[in-house]
Write a structure and sequence with these properties.
The chain is about 95% helix and about 0% strand.
């Protein structure tokens, strides 16, 4: 500990130390509350991203199914055209 810190602690009386401890506890509680709020926001955003990913996957599956239908129709049409 630096000498200036020792002198500072020696000059503080007990009531000041208790008040400082209370304010430090209050600051810690505020920081904990802010952290909990941020964690909640992150969880909500992760849920939204997960839902968006599911929607994108469903659209991709629909697009792939339609592409297969088109390819199947093309194959049928070319077979039909070559038959005549």
């Amino acid at each position: 500990m630096h000498q200036s810190n020792v002198v500072l602690l020696m000059t503080l009386n007990r009531s000041e130390l208790r008040r400082d401890a209370r304010s430090l506890r209050r600051m810690l509680a505020e920081k904990d509350a802010a952290l909990a709020e941020r964690e909640l926001i992150i969880a909500e955003k992760e849920a939204l991203l997960g839902e968006r990913d599911r929607v994108i996957a469903a659209r991709d599956a629909e697009l792939y199914a339609k592409t297969l239908q088109i390819e199947h129709l093309k194959a049928q049409t070319s077979t039909w055209i070559t038959a005549f």
